[in-house]
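## retry 2 of 3
previous attempt timed out at serialization; input unchanged, resubmitting
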Amino acid sequence: MKICLIGDYPPYKGGVSHFNFMLHKTLAARHSVTTISWKRKYPALFYPGKEQRVGNPESGNDILFILDSVNPLTWLSAAEFINKNKFDAVVFHWLTPFMGLMFFIIAKLVKKQSRIISICHNVLPHEKGFLDIFLTRLFSSKVDCFLLHSGREIADLKQIIKNPKLEVAYHPLYDMFENKKVPREIAKKKLGISGNVVLFFGYVREYKGLKDLIKCLPHVLKKINLTLLVVGEFWQGKKKYTKLIKDSNLEKNIILIDSYVPDNEVQNYFNASDLVAMPYRSATQSGSIQTAFGFDVPVVCTDVGGLGESVTDGTTGFVVPKENTQKLAEAVIRYFEERKEKEFVANIKRTKERFSWKNYAALLEKCIS
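## retry succeeded, writing output
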């Protein structure tokens, strides 16, 4: 088949970019694949972070950086390219309604000859806007099949469109990083830390519940001495977090690294961590879980979205209610007191095939056919 992917691609930052890189690579082993990505993703005014990419895009025969989210002429050029090359399927990475009008126009112009697939990283965004439903429904009206990353997203999708054709394909492992296993103590020494380490990794946004993790820490420290490593670019209100840390007298136990981590440095933090914490208040899925599992690191997460579908409670980690600092603290304490690492790591290794890119690609092919 000839397949066109539309969405983020390196050097653009973030989980969807990594995801599309691995999907392109996996599909290209069996099909003819082209990715269309951004010449400009967001105008600076609409982007809450720092830089949107690391380095400059370099187009090739199968990677084209031609889309500008606010220039309709580039949308028309992309549609013309797709029609000219007669793709069997066009696969859109759906993440935000900001792209709704652009994706709708491209899909409308190519639908006569190409099957339209939507990979829903979120059916609806975590931070809601008043046009979200309208723009999501607009694009969804042109979609032939939806690929969801959580069974819990089915209800959201059915609010948008009646009787959608869909498949649920859980987020595959992120194993594109330099997954070199280094003994934990050596990795800790490299970062200048020691003892028990819990990692919070990724962009810091309100819905990810870092406040709940910080608030539970004094309860944990009564039983277990540890360091909380917060690694990721702060998108919102860093001062609120630093004030909370100071007011809770946690400066000695929390390290903040406010920056985007290059791919070749990701391994440093996961190799040094005993446990990854994801106290999200809302979610669909998360690449942080699959990155953790890629490095054989157990996870404690909240039971929101598909997080509890990826982490098996008591087997590959612990799943706790959202915004419940007591239960979160109890799970972290239990992990260290009961020495769960060896058991959980063995279980992670046994279940990795469930999250393989090969399995994901097979479900995408089922959507296309």
